[in-house]
Amino acid sequence: MSDVAGRDPEAVSRFVERFAAQLVEAGLARMPARVFAALLASDSGALTSAELGEQLQISPAGVSGAVRYLSQVHMLSREREPGSRRERYRVHSDQWYQAITNREAIIKRWEDALREGVASLGAGTPAGHRLAETLAFFEFIEKDLVEMMERWQVRRAELFPDG
Q1: What are the tens digits of pLDDT across the range 106-160?
Q2: Which is nearest to 35 in space by CA: 14, 58, 12?
Q3: What is the residue extent of each domain of the chain?
Q4: pLDDT tens digits, residue range 47-103?
Q5: How many CB atoms are closer than 10 A to CB 59?
Q6: By the 8 A CB rule, do 50 and 35 touch?
Q7: Counting beta carbons within 10 angstroms of the beta carbon of residue 99, is it exposed (0 to 12), middle (13 to 18) or buried (19 or more)?
Q8: Helix, strand, coil proportions of the chain in percent (round to 5)?
Q9: What CATH fold (topology level) applies to the domain 9-90?
């Protein structure tokens, strides 16, 4: 048996579960990881709650919680089906770029908090030193992250000129 694109649904399911397991190992909760992997593996990049529930054999509440989390961390977007109350959940081809870019804003907030912490605790104290080192790490990462994202945009245009 195969799907519309001629793929073996069992092979697709194995990929979704295997990739979701990798995301879980990286720190993502299990249900959001499964929903994200299913969306990523769909040709359209978009599925309804009912489609996700059927494919993953999970409850509507499980889908709802997963998409709420994924939406909050900018790993998917919600769209309305024209003429319907049903929502579709979509991953985009540049969603990794967007997710990393959004993390950059978080890193900036952490840097601000760490600067305040160093000032409050005193740079000469062991805790202040630890915070200062953490701050230096995030500043280093942020600088390279910005440069890397700029290089990615150039590389992406080379590899996927229609994207």
Answers
A1: 889 999 999 999 999 999 999 999 999 999 999 998 888 888 989 999 999 999 9
A2: 58
A3: 9-90, 95-159
A4: 999 999 999 999 999 999 999 999 988 889 999 877 888 899 999 877 778 777 777
A5: 11
A6: no
A7: middle
A8: 70, 5, 25
A9: Arc Repressor Mutant, subunit A (1.10.10)
